[in-house]
Specification:
Blueprint lengths: L1 E4 L10 E4 L9 E11 L1 H8 L15 E6 L2 E6 L10 E5 L4 E2 L6 H21 L7 E4 L5 H12 L4 E6 L2 H9 L4 E4 L5 H8 L5 E6 L3 H9 L1 E9 L13 H6 L3 E4 L2 H5 L6 H12 L7 E6 L3 H9 L6 E5 L1
Parallel strand pairs: 8-9, 8-11, 9-10, 11-12, 12-13, 14-15
Antiparallel strand pairs: 1-2, 3-4, 3-6, 3-15, 4-5, 5-7
Length: about 325
């Protein structure tokens, strides 16, 4: 079968097309004929060797797939095995969820990691309450674009989107954001305060880390919560002084999807909810560029260079 294999850690240049034998499925696994594989920032971290949890060489990247298995059209994560950048993949049966006919491959893939992340950020980590103000950083990206919509669906009183360009801010407004502002750390807190009539945000969702995360912290209202779920800026990890948090009763949380999926009600149920909302056209996953499997390197380059919006997919 055709596949992308990584034999040494590095940048997009280490994503090499190759021919491999199809995987041999074991007990509790499904052999899935992959119709599309998702591309994520986490894939770039696996490729360069920086991913939390580690990766053993050589490996086939890709942890989210949609395809056919024994007559079913299924969506599945491959966190335990990786292997999605290929024509066939072995998927854990307990991770395979049926996809409604009304949901296309790209939309389904956008819901798997990005959608589940957005759901858990708002429900499990931030514990969003109706009427609260939510700031969503990188609001035109995979997680951000869904978080904007879900925050509204879950009853947020105001959603403030941040993004780096006017076009991306326009996308966020079209998805339901009440206000869209520049995400540059310089002046970030002031822009959030201006957008919220000086009150600040109850919740900030941040995937950039570094200076942007610290600026988000400054923009919180009393008892506000910041949830960080990445370090896309590749800046050093910022330190947070607990005594400074106490002055306004602020909270900072970190989120990683992998352990959250193993919690009771943490995977199948929210994913089924997201698929149903999409099938009913109440949720609009943003699908970006589509690449042939052999152009996985270009997909990673575009993702890292911030040349993309929405979900990037590879098509075997």
């Amino acid at each position: 079968m055709r596949a992308i294999q990584v034999t040494q850690f590095g940048g997009p240049e280490v994503l090499v097309p190759t021919e491999l034998d199809p995987p041999v499925v074991g007990p509790g696994e499904l052999l899935v004929e992959v119709s599309a594989a998702g591309v994520n920032f986490a894939d770039t971290h696996r490729t360069d060797g920086s991913y939390r949890g580690g990766v053993t060489l050589p490996f086939v990247p890709g942890v989210e797939i949609v395809g056919r298995a024994y007559g079913r059209r299924v969506l599945s994560t491959l966190f335990e095995t990786s292997g999605g950048y290929a024509e066939y993949a072995a998927a854990p049966a307990h991770r395979a969820v049926d996809v409604p006919d009304e949901v296309d491959d790209g939309s389904a893939l956008a819901l798997l990691i990005q959608g589940l992340t957005a759901w858990h950020l708002l429900k499990s980590s931030a514990r969003l309450r109706p009427g609260e103000t939510v700031v969503v950083n990188a609001a035109a990206g995979g997680v951000g674009s869904l978080a904007v919509q879900l925050a509204k669906h879950f009853g947020a009183g105001q959603v403030v989107a941040t993004a780096s360009t006017g076009d991306k801010r326009d996308i966020a407004r079209q998805l339901g954001a009440d206000v869209a502002i520049n995400n540059n750390p310089d002046g970030y807190a002031e822009r959030v305060l201006a957008a919220t009539d000086g009150r600040g945000a109850d919740v900030v969702l941040d995937s950039a880390g570094g200076a942007t995360m610290l600026a988000g912290l400054e923009s919180l209202a009393p008892f506000g919560r910041l949830v960080n779920y990445g370090n896309a800026s590749r800046e050093g990890r910022p330190s947070v002084d607990p005594s400074a948090l106490a002055q306004r009763n602020l909270s900072v949380a970190g989120f990683w999807l992998v352990p959250a999926m193993d919690l009771p009600g943490g995977y199948v149920e929210p994913l089924a909810e997201l698929l149903a909302l999409t099938a009913a056209k109440k949720l609009s996953p943003q699908v970006g560029a589509e690449y042939p499997l052999e152009e996985a390197r270009r997909a990673h380059e575009d993702l890292l260079a911030r040349r993309s919006t929405g979900k990037l997919i590879l098509k075997p």
